[in-house]
């Protein structure tokens, strides 16, 4: 039981560190910043691109940021040694 409590505490610390993770992806003047909770913190749009191109690039940036965060968090989990 005590081991489980320790693991839960370690997991909580790890989760708190995830919140501090940031990922910024920039393409063609469009920039997206996402945190470790997959919340978008900032978007910068390139007004020189037409609406369709902006939407296309924005989707790519969001997806890449999410994928990069997922990979980083998975690596952190594996390196933490926390196992249930």
Could you please describe the fold and organization of this structure?
This protein is α+β, with helices and mostly antiparallel strands. It has a single domain (2-80), classed as Ybab, Chain: A, CATH 3.30.1310. It contains two helices and three strands, in the order αβββα. Strands 1-2-3 form a three-stranded antiparallel sheet. A hairpin with a 2-residue loop joins strand 1 and strand 2 (30-35). The protein is elongated, with a radius of gyration of 17 Å. The model has no long low-confidence stretch (mean pLDDT 89).
Biggest sheet: strands, sense, closure? 3 strands, antiparallel
Number of strands: 3
What is the CATH fold-level name? Ybab, Chain: A
Portion of residues within helices: 55-70%
Report strand %.
15-25%
> Quick one: CATH class?
Alpha Beta
Integer-rounded radius of gyration: 17 Å
* SSE order: HEEEH
* Global morphology: elongated
- What is the CA–CA distance across the termini? 12 Å
Integer average pLDDT: 89
What is the count of DSSP helices, taking H or I runs of 4+ residues?
Answer: 2
CATH level-two architecture: 2-Layer Sandwich
Instruction: Supply the number of structural domains.
Output: 1
Task: Quickly give the structural class.
Answer: alpha+beta
Neighbour order of strands in the largest sheet: 1-2-3
Give the low-pLDDT segments.
none
